[in-house]
Amino acid sequence: MTTTTDAPARFTGRQRMTVILLLGAGFMLSVDYSILNVALPRLGAGVGLAPSELPWVVSAFALPAAGFTLLFGRIADMYGRRRLFLIGVTLLALSSLVGAMATNPTMLLTARVLQGFATAIATPAALALLVTSFSDEKQRARVLGLNGALLSGGFTVGALVGGTLVGVLSWRWAFLINVPVAVLILVATPFLVRASSAPAGVRLDVPGAVTVTLGLLAFVFGVINENVYSLLGGVALLVIFWMIERRARAPLAAVDILTRPTIKWGNVAGLVVFAMEPGAIFLMTLYLQDVLHFAPLTTGLIFGVPGLASVVAGVVAGRFIAKYGPRKVLAVGLLGQAAFTAPLIALGTGQVWLSVLIPALFFGFFAHVTAIVSFMVTATTGLPDSEQGLATGLATLTQQVGITIGVPILSAVMTTQAVMLDGLHLALGVNVLITVVATALIWIGLRPRIQPAAGDAGARDTLEASAG
Questions:
Q1: Number of other CB atoms surrounding residue 239 within 10 Å
Q2: What pLDDT, on the 0 to 100 scale, is given for residue 426?
Q3: Among 127, 147, 74, which Cα is nearest to 387's?
Q4: pLDDT, tens digit, for every residue of 178-222?
Q5: Nearest-CA neighbor of 273 among 152, 190, 418, 188?
Q6: What is the pLDDT of residues 214-255, one digit of tens each?
Q7: What region does 293 belong to: left with phi over 0, alpha with psi -120 to 50, or beta?
Q8: Cα separation of 350 and 43, whole Å?
Q9: What is the 3-class SS of the chain, one letter each residue?
Q10: Distance between CA atoms of residues 2 and 12, nearest Å
Q11: Exposed/middle/buried for 286, CB within 10 Å: 0-12, 13-18, 19+?
């Protein structure tokens, strides 16, 4: 009989270095997102993008990142996760150079598309390498907690660094900062990360990748431009994608995995987490710079200070999950995210409202990162190593789809009002409503289930049994 209260085995020296390297790559990507978030108004002005077109800076990145994540996760399983990881980091460095040299919207958006592809290649490979480096479930939860801490830490550092770089130097440094970090990762990876073995006889699902990419592109284009035909076309393509996945021999998104409540509802939670909070952050960036007229450096400081709470959340979330179960922690994290977004609906035009904004961001970031860690634990636990590429690819897809649809949806809601502040209030209200309703559905969907026979449950249902 296994004792569940035993402390997990200590990390070996190589495991520690592997964790530092792979989490460092995720940290870099998080910093990049946060820096560009702060830099958006200056960046748009620098290349001639109108404020209404700024969501495309986010969407141009998120579309390929979402559409091709599952494909590259599968390619990593087949041809080597370390190899794909190195290719992705290399592409990130090159695309960042292109972005830094951009002189017009086309060049800038091209760089963002390439960065999206780089993320789609590197992220699932890095996460799969990270998860498969540990057979102990408690070690995995600990590492995923550290991952959440560094993702949030990357946001905090990115907000501070981004405000400084953009305010003191130029928005171009929001891209250039990636290059030396990527080079360091490329040099260290071959010495620290073992190459993974590849199974034979597995085919790629290219039609699935094409349909999901075109479907997401059409859907987001429809949201941004309020084009019903594009929206319907996007939904139709996503339905075709679903049908392809049900028949594919080697699907990008294995639908049998999605029949497991923890995988299905865990990814629904991830979609809400990554759609609503980044969307709210985008809205607050506009509020601080276009309503309160703060400089990028001040904006970065305002985001950065509350962001420290999210670093703490990433560290302690794993302990919360071990004590209370992922279902409860996930629900509390989501409700906390909604609860501390709600006061922002009352924001006005005076700087006195910072007394509401900063505490709300502080506690909201804590809840947000807690929900992220819970989502990742829920969506990747109880699967064999051979399916981790698909599972982590699916979780990464969920993250990128959330970022893809959250910003343009809330931006579209905001633009329905003639006055920006009124639009911000309305969009934040929609944000809170969606999160609360989704949390109720997720709580019901993840309720513990009684298995018909003990032998049928196995490792795949361990999380369900402990969720309550």
A1: 12
A2: 93
A3: 74
A4: 888 888 888 877 777 666 665 555 566 678 778 877 887 787 677
A5: 152
A6: 887 787 677 666 678 888 898 899 889 888 877 777 666 666
A7: left
A8: 26
A9: CCCCCCCCCCCCHHHHHHHHHHHHHHHHHHHHHHHHHHHHHHHHHHHCCCHHHCHHHHHHHHHHHHHCHHHHHHHHHHHCHHHHHHHHHHHHHHHHHHHHCCCCHHHHHHHHHHHHHHHHHHHHHHHHHHHCCCCCHHHHHHHHHHHHHHHHHHHHHHHHHHHHHHHHHCCCHHHHCHHHHHHHHHHHHHHHCCCCCCCCCCCCCHHHHHHHHHHHHHHHHHHHHCCHHHHHHHHHHHHHHHHHHHHCCCCCCCHHHHCCHHHHHHHHHHHHHHHHHHHHHHHHHHHHHHHCCCCHHHHHHHHHHHHHHHHHHHHHHHHHHHHHCHHHHHHHHHHHHHHCCHHHHHCCCCHHHHHHHHHHHHHHHHHHHHHHHHHHHHHHCCCCHHHHHHHHHHHHHHHHHHHHHHHHHHHHHHCCCCCHHHHHHHHHHHHHHHHHHHHHHHHHHCCCCCCCCHHHHCHHHHHHHHCC
A10: 22
A11: buried
**Which residue is listed with tokens 């980091």?**
89
Which residue, 68, 32, 356, 346, is CA-closest to 213?
68
Cα separation, 234 vs 436, in Å, equals 26
Nearest-angstrom CA–CA distance, 433 and 441: 13
Whether the Cβ atoms of residue 49 and residue 171 lie closer than 8 Å to each other: no
pTM over 0.90: no
